[in-house]
Amino acid sequence: MKRVSKNVILFSAILSFAACSKERSPVTAWEYNEPKNGGFDVPAYEEQETGPGLVLIEGGTFTMGRAEQDVTYEWNAIPRRVSVSSFYIDQTEVRNLDYLEYLHWTARVFSANFYDVVKKALPDTLVWRDKLAFNEPYVEYYLRHPSYRDYPVVGVNWLQASDFCAWRTDRVNEFILIREGILGNAPTPTENDYFNTDQYLAGKWQGTVVAPIPSKDPNGGDRLVRMEDGIFLPRYRLPTEAEWEFAAYGLIGNSEGEKISERRLYPWNTHGVRNPDEKYLGKIMANFQRSNGDMMGIAGALNDAGDVTTPVFSYWPNDYGLYNMAGNVTEWVMDVYRPLSAEDKADFRPFRGNVFKTQLRDVDGIMINDTIRYDADSNIISIPGMVRWRDVSIAVPDDNLDERRNYKYADNINYLDGDVKSQTGGGWTENYDPASGKPESSGMYDYPPTLGSGGTFSSLINDKARVIKGGSWRDRAYWMVPGTRRFLDQRQSTDWIGFRCAMTRVGSPQGLGPR
């Protein structure tokens, strides 16, 4: 009995020693998080936190592009198999209430000295006007009246939607730091000290840290949160076209093993627009225009009960739990539009619109230059002495471009676009414009308005044309097929286009849930 007791005590001591011992490097055997060894800090980490409002979309392969007959004969959505990484996307479209929160914050911070910033964020409520219709009530009430607070925001162009995503990133990361006790709540931020994720990570944020993180460095002291801590979430952004289309179909509900049993035409099964379920038999599945002059059906038996848009949680979600991926409002995505993008884009995470930017950092990851080069085409107010939230990196030419194999110049929107320069990669090295940080335009989309009149116009398909996806309350059922695609200038807005945000999934595509 005594020997057993000794064995138990010895085993307990071994377990206790193992529990107290620190994690060691498998390549050097030195302990992590040990000041005596230099203080290499390796915080505990499980997986990415799901941001507010988001749904995890487990990625995979699917056939992107045309699923319906091409009634427009544009041939701009050639079917092609691609793979999409796991990502997050909003469960619903961004609501009027969400955008009003953004406007309220922007006014609090910038209205005193930089009212132009507030003005640039305002949606265009005049998009509701129609020369031969009485839509003035929507002009006056749709954005701000509480009856419409849960309806999708419209009148927002691509640039404004991108700004909203960047603002949301900073507000969510600020909330996380406050929740963790690192920052205190700042009820009255100003244009000089509002929280900005990139400025904080660069060590240039001017706000007050309540409880800095103790450093493991043998020299002592405290430090700020770093990217390596895994506390900050990745940026909110617009989804890519491939991500939006993949999420809209929700094929996870039609898969059996590695086989997709039925390819969908819409975000639901069957090729009709009415619910086949016995409980809801015949109910319209989305908000769209059924025929000429039929926006919502007959009084007493409204088919979609939406004269214009409807609340964002209307109808039935798809198999990812996403609402209104067909109908209600068409949505902005990140991509620059080209008719033959399907032929050019990569098989993995396809996207057109890359303008590469490089952040200059020192060996500790601190940004060594806080001068931001503003995009001349971004239509954004440049504020001296501060960095706005959508300016996230420094555009600089790469000194070793000749040695690179993956790209030769920073602006790749026109890559493989038909002109000689984009195919040879000569845009940066031969025509680099240091003032704008971009290669000079090849001019392939420019043309004179009339012969000999001087000046130039640009075709509708150019570097400012952005893809819009999905049908809207003004559209016929054809546009609710996720594989269809249209485009609009990024500076324009309508009463039928809204948006939802997305976020990159880092790490495992499945997370730590059941396999």
Q: Quick recap of the structure?
A:
The protein is α+β, with helices and mostly antiparallel strands and 515 residues long. The protein is built from ten helices and 20 strands. The chain has two domains: 400 residues, Alpha-Beta Complex (paralog of FGE (formylglycine-generating enzyme)); 106 residues, no CATH class.
Write the layout of secondary structure elements.
Blueprint: H1 2-20, E1 54-57, E2 60-64, E3 80-84, E4 87-90, H2 96-110, H3 115-121, H4 136-141, H5 158-179, H6 197-201, E5 213-214, E6 222-223, E7 236-237, H7 241-249, E8 255-256, E9 259-260, E10 297-298, E11 301-302, E12 330-336, H8 341-344, H9 420-424, H10 427-431, E13 432-433, E14 438-439, E15 446-447, E16 457-458, E17 465-469, E18 486-489, E19 497-498, E20 502-504
Parallel strand pairs: 12-19
Antiparallel strand pairs: 1-4, 2-3, 4-20, 5-6, 7-20, 8-9, 10-11, 12-17, 13-14, 15-16, 17-18
Helix pairs in contact: 2-3
Tell me the series of helices and strands, N- to C-terminal: HEEEEHHHHHEEEHEEEEEHHHEEEEEEEE
Question: What is the beta-strand fraction?
Answer: 5-15%
- How far is the N terminus from the C terminus? 44 Å
What is the tally of helical segments? 10
Radius of gyration: 26 Å
CATH class of the largest domain: Alpha Beta
Extended strand count: 20
Biggest beta-sheet profile? 4 strands, antiparallel
Helix content: 10-25%
Instruction: Please tell me what the overall shape is.
Output: globular
Number of domains: 2
Order of strands across the main sheet: 1-4-20-7
